Amino acid sequence: MRRLAESNRVVLIAFTILAAASGSAEAQRVDSGRKHRVPVTLALAGHPPHAGTPYVLLRRPPSGGGDVILLADTATAGTLSAALRLLMVSRQLDGDSVAAPATFRLRKGEAGEVPRPVVPWVPRVLADLRAAEPKPVRGVGTVRAVQIWLPAQGDGHHATGPGHPSRRPARLR
Q1: Is the pLDDT of residue 161 over 80?
Q2: First CA to last CA across the chain, in angstroms?
């Protein structure tokens, strides 16, 4: 009888270990499937970055300082929302990081006259940016700047085609 109770206890311990191991494996699968976030620096210039442009998007490799959205002092929440959308589309097409630097700018009216909603959290980020202390931003100079983190749009590499998983956009919330 004692031998049976001891073997039942061993079986119970084995099942407990297996259940714990399978639970942690499941948790690891969930964690590994989670999308990561990718940084972008928002910088406020004292004047429009280029005549007639409300913002400039600088795509740079991580070793070159990473992505920067350079905004004019007169930027609105709508302007920042549009710049963030351009960055997200660029990341969908070219990957979350780039190998070579690139500069994107849109003149007023080039993006079409279709009104786009403001991303809900952008007014708060813009207020934080306006209140930030000036600091050096590589390749830009000393400006008011904050860093935010956006949902990953790709796998960190260049996208490979329309069906590639990096082409499925994560949404700004």
Answers
A1: no
A2: 62
